[in-house]
Amino acid sequence: MLRSIEEILGYKIQAEDGTLGRIKDIYFDDTSWAIRYVVVDTGTWMAGRQIVLAPEVLGEPDPNRREMPITLARRRIEGSPPIVQEQGLTPRQQQLLAEYYDWSLPAAKRSVGSAAMGAGDGPKAARMLLQNQQSEQLDPHLKSLRGMIGYHIRARGVDVGHIEDVLVQTDSWLLRYLVIDARNLVPGKKMLVSPAWVRRVEWSGGVVDVDLTAGSLKDGPPFDASQIISREYEKKLYDHYAGDRYWE
Q: pTM higher than 0.90, yes or no?
């Protein structure tokens, strides 16, 4: 199922034993476009700590109730390794969280030689984490989806518009499409661009370069957020831009 990030932000997170908080951001890996974590605002309950949840514990979002269930209890989350910075995660923090929750972690994110954090040594590992995390470098490939909204889209040198939304496939938790407001080409026109067509991202400048021409975007299939994205629409989209279909 494809879900809008603009829709999901603000959803309640329902733990097994009550409401945890609300979704305030989503982190993704800019090398794979895979969703890595949902960031939760817990209000005053766990103030001063950044709470993140991996896709393994996420249920299907409920748009009617504006909530997302998770397969964790609040008490389990309360005992997790503390993350004190407001944004981003270091590789070691990600490893400690993966070991604490038994989450999977891409091989590139694993630290060589660090001890596993079991139930018995959790407090010790947490203390070490607090002592070291101020000096550790954040993972440069972990990016904010919320922060990406508004980035300019440049098609082979031509500024065509900006990112208005992002669509995520929640059964695989992959970033599937960027929703583009192409007002510089056709006022009022929205369109979809696959991450596979992105050539590079200037993170410091807020610009996404796509390997498409302004002309092809101008003539591309329009996107209507009120309509369900069918496979027929996706076939038309990929055929127009001559892209490899992700579902084949």
A: no
